[in-house]
Every structure is written in C-alpha cells, then in structure tokens.
Amino acid sequence: MSAIDTTFETLRSQGRKAFLPFVTAGDPNLEFTGKVLQELVARGASLCELGIPYSDPIADGPVIQASYTRVLDQKQKLANILEAASQWTAALSAPIVSMVSHSIIHRQGLENYVARAKAAGIAGAIVPDLLVEESAAFSEICQREDFSLIQLVTPTTPRERALRICETSTGFLYFVSVTGITGERTELPPEVVDQVGWLKERTDLPICIGFGISKPEHVKMLSPVADGFIVGSAIVRKIAEVDEKGEEAVLAEIGELADQLMAAMDS
Asked: Catalytic: 60?
C-alpha cells in the first residue's frame, strides 16, 4: 500500500476530507518552498502537490504559469528540485506528489523518473498531459514500483473514457471542476456534484476536486461528494507577493487560508 493509499484510508476511517495544497517547486526559491510546505502541513494538509516547472504547461492558468516562469528564469534544474524534495519529505508528515509534464518524464525515461522521484521521497505523480491511450507503459511501471499515478477527469470527459482513466489510476482521481485552465473562480458549476457522484458509484478511488477551488464556499458546496480538495492558484498568488510583503507575512496569510478551507471541510 502506497503512502497516498494509507493517507486516504486514515482519513476515511476518521470521516475527514483531504486538503491538498499546490506549491510550485522553487518559487521564489527552494528554501522558501520548504517553509511553505512545512506551514501547510502544520495547518493540516493531508498531502502536498509539488509543481515541477515546465515551459509549456498544458492546464495551468496565468498565476501558476507565471510562477513556473519565475523558476525557469533561475535555470532551476530537476536534479536540484529532487535533492531539495528529499529533505522536505524526510521532515514532513504528509506525502508529496509531483505535478509533472509527461514531456519531463519521457525525457528522463519512465523508469528513471519513477526511481529518482521515489528516492526523493515523492509518493506519486499527477501527469496532466498523459493521454489514457498512452498511459499503459507508465502505469505498469508505477504499479510495480508502488508509485501512485494520478490522472485527470474533466467535466467533458466521455463516461466510457472516464472509466478507463479510473482503471489506470492509483492513489486518487483528480476531478477537474471546470473546463479550461487552473485558476481562482467566483463560482463553480453545480453539475459537478452530479458528475462526481456518478464516478463515485463506479470507482473505489478517492476523488479529489481541483481547478478553481479557492474559497470556503467552494469546499462547502462540493464537500458532500468530494474526498479531498486541491488548492493551487490561491496559494501561489500569495507566494508571488513575498518580495513585497516578506516571508513571515506570506506564510501567515497562507496559514490563514489553509485554516479557512480546513474549517469549511469540517463544517
């Protein structure tokens, strides 16, 4: 059983939802990324999603794209990120899962990427640009190595295809709450509740909802069907203000946001 499986099993036994914050690795630097992760876990994060910067992100909105650009401008290397991740995972009580482009994985070699990520303590990968038709080889490696492969289902994914994605996914299923790119929304479509409910009748995988989750109201609306919530842009936007506000102030704001979202999950 993977670390992610164990986490969700524990949460289910306690009747709790998962809080999965997203942080870009190396924005504004790797040292501060570690501090943000520590703050989020201290506030109750169940898992942490670590974005591996890529020059051509598929599904990321302007806030996360800008954070990737800041890191890439520093010429930050994957090796440096994984080295830092090995220190973070050793100190954190919550698993880390990477959000990584299939292009990066392919360039590293499928088995090599899994081996390097596991050696750094990373528990799995979310691969937004991996087509289910092309996932068999990577899925097989991940299952053999007990490395979770988390795939995405969108509101427009045909149901037959959604079931195929469930079959090749492990750890949890990432349900995209809105079509398009990541980012903060004022409202979420109410039909998401029905769509996630349909999936939950057909898979035992925990279903975590992301894209547009930024407010306690979003969490309350989707809490009846979701097993967890992924929050990215709202956190990354605060990190972008670190030069202006300072590290302590930004960490405090991130912690306050985490508290608000966690409270909404429990209400």
From this structure: yes
